[in-house]
Amino acid sequence: MAPRTTFSAHFRQSVTPNALRSYLAEFISTFIFVLAAAGSAMASRKIMPDARSDPSSLVVVALANTFGLASAVYISSGVSGGHVNPAVTFGKVVGCYIPIPTAIFYWISQILGSVMACLLLKVVTVNQNVVPHAISEDMTGFGASVLEGVLTFGLVYVVYAAKDPRHGQLGSIGPLVIGLITGANVLAAGPFSGGSMNPAYSFGAAAVGGSFKNQAVYWIGPLLGAAVAGVLYDNVVYPPQDSDTPWCGLDGSRV
Amino acid sequence: MAPRTTFSAHFRQSVTPNALRSYLAEFISTFIFVLAAAGSAMASRKIMPDARSDPSSLVVVALANTFGLASAVYISSGVSGGHVNPAVTFGKVVGCYIPIPTAIFYWISQILGSVMACLLLKVVTVNQNVVPHAISEDMTGFGASVLEGVLTFGLVYVVYAAKDPRHGQLGSIGPLVIGLITGANVLAAGPFSGGSMNPAYSFGAAAVGGSFKNQAVYWIGPLLGAAVAGVLYDNVVYPPQDSDTPWCGLDGSRV
Amino acid sequence: MAPRTTFSAHFRQSVTPNALRSYLAEFISTFIFVLAAAGSAMASRKIMPDARSDPSSLVVVALANTFGLASAVYISSGVSGGHVNPAVTFGKVVGCYIPIPTAIFYWISQILGSVMACLLLKVVTVNQNVVPHAISEDMTGFGASVLEGVLTFGLVYVVYAAKDPRHGQLGSIGPLVIGLITGANVLAAGPFSGGSMNPAYSFGAAAVGGSFKNQAVYWIGPLLGAAVAGVLYDNVVYPPQDSDTPWCGLDGSRV
Amino acid sequence: MAPRTTFSAHFRQSVTPNALRSYLAEFISTFIFVLAAAGSAMASRKIMPDARSDPSSLVVVALANTFGLASAVYISSGVSGGHVNPAVTFGKVVGCYIPIPTAIFYWISQILGSVMACLLLKVVTVNQNVVPHAISEDMTGFGASVLEGVLTFGLVYVVYAAKDPRHGQLGSIGPLVIGLITGANVLAAGPFSGGSMNPAYSFGAAAVGGSFKNQAVYWIGPLLGAAVAGVLYDNVVYPPQDSDTPWCGLDGSRV
């Protein structure tokens, strides 16, 4: 019964006023990010319907991801930690930074924010549709999952470093660097797997765009990559100096 | 009579030497920003007259907005708070950060700065005209207002976060992040509503460019979006820890 | 005789080991900046000989200016103050931050750095020539001077703000913002007057590229703009709190 | 015998747990950087097979280098110093910051990270090949070596400045500026010598891409340029105030 009690204690912590503000912050940040990211893909299609044939469309989308995510992480970093991405939240659960019930509310907020942003874009632009993430015709779903997973590994690893107090004054550019790794990865993977690294964004674009084809690619890879990054950063590459912070229990608390 | 007295007291505060320096700082910053933003739109037209058909023109304009606004906010942040935008000033009035008479002088300074920048561009480039903001032929004025309003919501929300002392060392990249969200939003909305988020810029481009068509779109949406951001940030998402800062009076003072 | 004595005292200060290191730092920084800026113009010509017809060439050149200048200012800011530009040095003389003899050695170092970078580019690329700054065929030399002057005003104003200790932690992104305003201005002025804002860069590109046509445009405008920025920032917009720092003497010292 | 003893003492220092974590950090950072840089070159080829004819492909690659390297340096700066490049490691050996045995393990980690990233890209993209660095047909190998060497000089000079504690709060944007100088140099040299500045990246791309043509260009130039930067920064331009830090011994220790 003990874990259940702990779980319900965690649940009560997850509905305090401060916790509710965190969910609202995640909703707003994910909304702002997906508005920029999904909007830029629609904008480059509007300018050039066959946007996949022009490298400058890739620049448009990569910069919107970079600038949008850096801003979105920045504004919520003081309230919710600035996840803006279910994979980041998952990586933080694996590292025992937030309990599972809180993470579930984060996920819901992020997915709602993404869906709302995509809906708004579709409604106001009238004849344009949201562009779901898609994989290149040459690639397999497995290969795309691996690519998205490795890219998300990099993103979540950067998130861990950006929040690490041991980095001192480097922490002041943390949200910017989270944006930069995202943009770098979009430039590398855009025409191959889309470079989503964000299941909430992919879900919103798929739900509003009307195609869940290969949706699993944008969940399995990123969640696995995020988990590996969370374990590796704190336990292998840069372990805390005080060795009295052991691995957390199954209920998401540090034991 | 009391409110009137308060208003006149606020007015006297609005013409001190420090206040006049603030207006000059807003004038210079808006001039520098609009010179870059409006100039880049003219530059991409000069290079490719049908600039709307090439995504790299969108990159040109978005980067000029990002880099120009970050610089313009940076240089006046120590003097006037670095608004550079009537919508930001309005959002600060709603949040009770500046009194209404001061805000009126900020607006005048911003609009003058924008008009002067557009005039200079038109005169020196001889055969080029300033490009007013325009909405896509598919869209309605209402849809464009909503889009500009939501984008400005994001911008003003970032402005609030960037000036929030609770963000600690993250404050050092504040002006940069204000530029980044602007660039992200231009990349998303460029071919739809232009991505202005700034009534002063839109007014200057319209006045010198010679077309006030849809001008209301660039005032109503941004002002409403800014007001919502100002209310939401301070009162819901991230309220001050000391609960003794209540809502301000109608005259713009905190009561 | 007094001013002459002071001048010679200043001259002796200008040849100390620390001063010589400053000149070397300015030489290296200007070399690195011009290598990137002039190289990017040659690179876009190499890729597309009629580079003036493609907005993405403007992006290439603007980003090279932004990234190159931010880096160049950064590396010499602790040694020479990171001018990397005779117009900035002139603006600092006008504001009484450095004496005239030192400024002359700065100018010589900057011009040598620029010429060396252009020479290296011409030699290693074999069949490519350095691209001098040029003004659009529609524009007058006077208009181009005004435009370059106004752009340089913005740049030097940012330089003043970036070095102002009253900006506190914002000082940590100073060199970056100096790069950003340069990039913003190149995006606005590239196809009109080239967006040089830097007489040393324009001189080096002209000397090695073999055309001094309109060279005066890149000296008169920038130097005047820099002087106005220096006077305006310190004396009008953001005067020192302690009013005992009056205007400097003709010999470049504060009286 | 004394040097040999010192060398073996250095070797023992090079296999402590902290040292092993440094090598893992260099492996991960180089993997993340090369994934973005090499991936972006493949992405622009995928979009436009004749990518060398479009300046926006150069923007894609330069931004991926900038964003990817800034992120990669950031995440390992607290563990391994964030070299991510054998030339940087060599420059640090020349400046006596790390002993030679440690440097050898850094090189191995960097090269492994690069090869792994290129292999992953080749496997998951199925029909795309990694693009090795190449020099323009007009240029000589010697000219390309000089160009890569001068560019790497700039990069390593920036690395020295970014890690210099005398720069105070400017240190907080150090990893970003290391990315910016890399991007600036890629924009200048992309169509001429590729703008690698990184022997590990060039080796990985050559090994997986299947062409070691001109590989020496990407080793000789960068290593020489890095050595010159290391000597010049610490000994000439910006020597330590305490003159009791002399040149280091042949075994890599400061004497």
Automatic annotation (TrEMBL), chains A, B, C, D:
InterPro entries named in the record: Aquaporin-like, Aquaporin_transptr, MIP, MIP_CS
Biological process, per Gene Ontology: water transport
Topology in the lipid bilayer: Multi-pass membrane protein
Annotated Gene Ontology cellular component terms: membrane
Ranges in coiled-coil conformation: none
Membrane-spanning intervals of the chain: 23-44, 56-77, 97-121, 142-161, 173-195, 216-233
Tagged with keyword Transmembrane helix: yes
Keywords for the protein's UniProt record, in alphabetical order: Membrane, Transmembrane, Transmembrane helix, Transport
Molecular function terms from GO: water channel activity
Record's subcellular location: Membrane
PANTHER family registered for this protein in UniProt: AQUAPORIN TIP5-1-RELATED (PTHR45665:SF27), AQUAPORIN-8 (PTHR45665)
Family: Belongs to the MIP/aquaporin (TC 1.A.8) family.
Name by which UniProt lists this protein: Probable aquaporin TIP5-1
Native organism: Spinacia oleracea
